[in-house]
Fold this sequence. Notes:
The protein is mostly helical. 68% of the residues lie in helices and 3% in strands. The chain has two domains: 4-91, Arc Repressor Mutant, subunit A; 96-230, Up-down Bundle (Four Helix Bundle (Hemerythrin (Met), subunit A)), CATH 1.20.120.530. The chain has helices spanning 4-17, 23-43, 54-61, 65-77, 96-120, 123-127, 130-139, 144-160, 165-177, 183-188, 193-207, 211-223; strands at residues 81-84, 88-91. A hairpin with a 3-residue loop joins strand 1 (81-84) and strand 2 (88-91). The model is unreliable at 1-5 and 10-26 (pLDDT under 50).
Amino acid sequence: MAFKMAIAGLKMRREESTNGLNKIKRTDLRSQVVALLRAQIVSGELAMDQVHSAAALAKDMGISITPVREAILDIEHSGLIEVIRNRGFRVLPIRDEDLDEIRDLRSMLEAPAMAMVVRRASDEDLQALKPLLERMQAASESDLAEFLQLDSEFHVRLMELTGNTRLVRLVENLRDQTRLHGIATLLREGALSETMKEHHVLLDALIKRDADLSVRLMRQHLDHTRGIWAGRKE
């Protein structure tokens, strides 16, 4: 199962909680559940045509139901799911037109932002992203949940390098609404290597301070959200 390693990580966190886990650690568990559920929704692992039980998800993850319930409430606020009282939640459907709008908005925001990153980010800031890409590379071979979470972290950290907090929040919100149902197929076929190559080439362009190339590469990268990542031909 694509999310087995992520669930194993949550089980390890649960074991830590039995050894005097403090409040910050419990909050971290909640955030991990939020990230995992969002990855499952974005990739299509949690189907839209059924009700998902918080109790069943908690059992699968090997944790108590409380952080799962808290995570569900967090995700409900982003408009990804509909909570069904005393039953669980259902993933809300999204139209192709909505996905087109999300892709277009992300392209308008994230691509030009690369020029801002070139101007404002230090060499140390950009070099610090390399270990993140190495972790993504490893996850791209077997762990879909980890890959999607790290991919989100990479893009958010790039936005943070612009110094514009409102831009960061807008991009995070748009990423949460994206659906990438073709990603799981790419992982099974071992085809995420091309996606990883795009991340490396983009970071190299930023490090070389090539603003025009960085903007173009990001725009091409985001086009995949309506192509192969969405399970469609390009």
